[in-house]
Design goal:
148 residues, Globin-like, binds protoporphyrin IX containing FE, Hemoglobin_trunc, Globin-like_sf
Length: 148
């Protein structure tokens, strides 16, 4: 039986993630509920989210090497006080974009959606006033079987 491609290769690698995230933030910045949260959006934002997702889904571990790893990622959300409505809209828009930009494969779309649900809940939780980041451990990995 031929070997199954890695999750990262199956989703199309960094190019696919770049198309996905670029298109996603184009919509986020037009969304009445989310645009105010991203008032200080910078051109590096898309790039850094792509680097993060690349590592999570099994590509090169560049976020850990260059951008502060898991703790660095969480600290970007500190103090944002993300509401459940904002979290849910962010996730909904990303999944709708993934349905268009990532391969149709049902398991791939499902695992991606599970990661987004998990990750957005953590982002919301660490964004609340007074939340402690602690030591979140290494950058999470996610693949065909869910969390690795
Ligand atoms: C899986 C979930 C998420 C991931 C992987 C993620 C990823 C990231 C990354 C990599 C950055 C740093 C960007 C940079 O270096 O310029 C960032 C910043 C940010 N994220 Fe998220 N994010 C997630 C969820 C959310 C949610 C749900 C919201 C709000 C609805 C949000 C709002 C923001 C904002 C406002 C910033 C910029 C903060 C600043 O000014 O530094 N994020 N995010």
């Amino acid at each position: 039986m031929p070997e199954q491609p890695s999750f990262y290769d199956a989703l199309g690698g960094a190019d696919a993630l770049h198309r996905l995230i670029d298109s996603f933030y184009g919509q986020v910045l037009q969304d009445p509920l989310l645009a105010p949260v991203f008032a200080h959006f910078t051109p590096t934002h898309v790039e850094h989210v792509v680097v993060w997702l690349t590592e999570v889904f099994g590509g090169p571990a560049e976020y850990t090497k260059r951008l502060g790893g898991h703790h660095g990622l969480l600290s970007h959300h500190a103090g944002l006080a993300i509401t459940e409505e904002q979290r849910a809209r962010w996730a909904e828009l990303l999944l709708a974009t993934a349905a268009k930009e990532l391969p149709e494969d049902a398991l791939l779309q499902q695992r991606f959606a599970e990661y987004v649900e998990w990750g957005t809940r953590i982002a919301k939780s660490v964004s609340q006033p007074g939340a402690e980041l602690g030591d979140p451990g290494p950058t999470p990995r996610w693949g065909w079987n869910g969390p690795a």
